[in-house]
Amino acid sequence: MNIFRIKKQLRRRWRRWRRAIWTIGGCGLVTMMTWLGLMLSNQMEQLMAKEPIALETLGIIREAAIGAGKETDLEPAWIEQLSRSRQRRTVHLNKIYACGEESSVLGTLSPDEVIEIYRANPGWQGSLDAQGDVWFEQQINELSEMCRSNGYFGIDQQGNLSLFEGPPDKEKVLKTFFQLDVETMESSLPPDVLLHLHQGIRIQDLDEYNSVLSTFSEFAAMPARKVMQQKDE
């Protein structure tokens, strides 16, 4: 009987201990979860208060790439030569049109002012002449004011299709294009067309300019035609 009583008492004690263990374990688990929640909350607040690491890293990479690009972007030799001198220079702008040219003086500028103009106009070509003046060149696919007001296509004394300032009889040749096969033109074109060409064909816009060139390129002499074909290729 004593043995059974002892076993019963041990089982009762074990049940009480087990309840105590479960109670203590549950409390400990709740405490641990609460502590972890606070830790995570603090970490999230810190992360939200600053830029994400991935964005910071991306920004660093982008800045490094931009810096590397600036270091490898070499300036033209004339810009480097200009930068080494503090001398003020006369700056010219030469506008080259499909027909005609116009030149102007932008002023006497410091090297920094010249470089600022160059960087603000990436399509311009620049250079220094023998006197140290700066020349900018701008290509414009249009007719100059002079060509619009007084430009004529005609035949010069050597039989070339040329562009004149004023009628061809004034012989102010602005530009020579190619030698014409006059015999073929005389046999192929009406007489009034040839007369018109000798007297001068007035042009007032870029479309007329290109149309005259295209029409008479069909009558270019053979050497000139070969040269034009090579340029097209």
UniProtKB/TrEMBL annotation:
Q: Which Gene3D superfamilies match?
A: Bypass-of-forespore C, C-terminal domain
| Lineage: superkingdom | Bacteria
Where does the chain cross the membrane? 20-40
For this protein, the record's InterPro entries field holds: BofC_C (IPR015050), BofC_C_sf (IPR038117)
Q: Does the keyword Transmembrane helix apply?
A: yes
| UniProt KW keywords | Membrane, Transmembrane, Transmembrane helix
Q: Where is the Bypass of forespore C C-terminal domain?
A: 142-217
Please state what the protein is called. Bypass of forespore C C-terminal domain-containing protein
Question: Which organism is this protein's natural source?
Answer: Paenibacillus woosongensis
